[in-house]
Amino acid sequence: MSRIVIDKEKCKACYLCINECPKQLIKISNDTNKLGVHTVEFNDPDNKCIGCAMCAMRCPDLAITEVYRG
Amino acid sequence: MATQVFKLPESLKGDVKYSFCPGCDHGVAVRLVAEVLDELGVRENTILAASIGCSVTIYDFINVDSLEAPHGRAMAEATGIKRARPDKIVFTYQGDGDFASIGLAESMHAALRGENITAICINNTTYGMTGGQLGPTTLVGQVTTTSPTGRNVDYYGYPIKIAEHIALCDGTAFSARVSLDTVANIKKAKQAIKKAFEVQIHGLGFGFVEILSTCPTNWKMSPEKAHERVRNEMMPVFKPGIYKDVTVQN
């Protein structure tokens, strides 16, 4: 099962990853972090993530710290 | 069993948070440099000559020995380090104002001397840290805080195309311009940075990569729109590509 790990405290809410995901699994969260911004959240109930890591390569703040494929 | 396909590079300090603005491509560029140092296995043997500008903060994030240089003089300092310690891998990480305006003499002559060092130059067409003034790479017609009616060539002249100029120097072993606007281009950028380090490791001469980056804060754009500007306005003027590669010519 493919998945990503998001460090929400590093997210600065640029939202570049949202358009990068081919399966539209990343969305803006209702929660805020210590910076006071609405971070992104990864929601994959149907196991659609393919582990392409495009979100992680796009993220300028290394907030997507790990990607697993399988 | 899931395999890990992405992890943070070991050359980065893991617990550090970037101080760049949201959506700034500096973060991607720093990560690519760290990944290349990891892959080449040279981190323990590398010295960074830090510049002035937003690019200076790389020494807070990357886990290599570093020295700070006066504005524009990173290339002169890197020359000294490399000549004193030729066994070390020496690189600079500079912005376009630092590399191509204030430090143009240092940069150009380092390339002309064929110094065996690597230079990474971030081109975002403005002076980012000081508030978005007109820089050497500001596009014709671009509005900045010091060109409020747009860059007028009669008054301000034309933007400098750094990668082409560096490629003309006989001491240059590798000169390329890359962009970070899409993931595909990020992968190409990493290959170019790796090549710029490899020419140094093999002692072939000066390695240079110009990276087209964004400055959403001073361009007053969203990060997504800033990437569209890179694609639609910057890339037709600053064309990505490899302008010199001695390993191919030989």
Description:
The complex is a heterodimer of chains A (70) and B (250). Chain A is α+β, with helices and mostly antiparallel strands. Chain A contains 2 helices and 4 strands, in the order βαββαβ. In chain B, α8 links the parallel β6 and β7. Chain B contains 11 helices and 8 strands. The interface between A and B is medium-sized, with 30 and 28 residues.
* N-to-C span of chain A: 5 Å
Named CATH architecture of chain B: 3-Layer(aba) Sandwich
Question: What's the helix count of chain A?
Answer: 2
Structural category of chain B is alpha/beta
How are the strands ordered across the major sheet of chain B? Answer: 3-2-4-5-7-6-8
**What distance separates the N and C termini of chain B?**
45 Å
Structural shape of chain A: globular
Largest sheet of chain A: 2 strands, antiparallel
User: What share of the residues of chain B lie within helices?
Assistant: 40-55%
CA-based shape of chain B = globular
The total number of structural domains of chain A is: 1
Question: Per CATH, which architecture of chain A?
Answer: 2-Layer Sandwich
Q: Could you list the spans of chain B in which at least 5 consecutive residues all have pLDDT below 50? A: none
Tell me the number of helical segments of chain B per DSSP (H or I, 4 or more residues long): 11
* Count of beta strands of chain B: 8
Please tell me how large the radius of gyration of chain B is: 17 Å
